[in-house]
Amino acid sequence: MTGIIILGAYGQVARLVRSRLLQEKDAHLTLFLRRSERITDADPERETVVEGDVNDYAALVEAVKGQDVVYANLGGRFEPMAANIVRAMDADGVRRLIYVTGLGLYHEVPGEFGRWIEESCGHEVMEDTRRAAAIIEDSDVNYTIIRAAYMDDAADTDYETTCKGKLFRGTTISRASIADYIMRLLADQQLDNRSSVGIDRPGTDADRPMW
């Protein structure tokens, strides 16, 4: 049985992925989150709930031990968390990482929308996000970084992807689409290895998020 640890397991995308994994994949899930009482419906046969903070290296390295896949869906200061994730994976010999972040890591968002992102998020936040991605890309883990457009709760799974080095397209994406792409990554071990992938909803190019 595949072991998958979800870091930030109460996040909105993470909950969609968790639900689909339980329905569609023979996997044991480790649900890692800061407030474990938020999860009240864990399946004792297939899930282990661990209360912990990714900034706590000792707790993280213990939770990552024995896993096949680390899926990170986090908020906060990203650079120290990325460093801990890579360090814990190296210590435990875990190779596969799926890491969800936002668009604009490489100044790849063109035009007015790209300018607006930099201004609205702020220099400090954007640089922290970029440093975190660089830590992952400079590591020897088998990563897929998912650079998501602005998220909404629509039920559609209409999405397109762009590789690093290409201009980002679109402004929005459903959380269901991100979950669907993560499921594809988990189903196909050859898909987008050691890649940074932009994801958006086709036809949403605009100067601001097209809600």
UniProtKB/TrEMBL annotation:
<feature type="domain" description="NAD(P)-binding">
    <location>
        <begin position="8"/>
        <end position="188"/>
    </location>
</feature>
<dbReference type="GO" id="GO:0004074">
    <property type="term" value="F:biliverdin reductase [NAD(P)H] activity"/>
</dbReference>
<dbReference type="Pfam" id="PF13460">
    <property type="entry name" value="NAD_binding_10"/>
</dbReference>
<protein>
    <submittedName>
        <fullName>Oxidoreductase</fullName>
    </submittedName>
</protein>
<dbReference type="InterPro" id="IPR051606">
    <property type="entry name" value="Polyketide_Oxido-like"/>
</dbReference>
<dbReference type="InterPro" id="IPR036291">
    <property type="entry name" value="NAD(P)-bd_dom_sf"/>
</dbReference>
<dbReference type="GO" id="GO:0042602">
    <property type="term" value="F:riboflavin reductase (NADPH) activity"/>
</dbReference>
<dbReference type="InterPro" id="IPR016040">
    <property type="entry name" value="NAD(P)-bd_dom"/>
</dbReference>
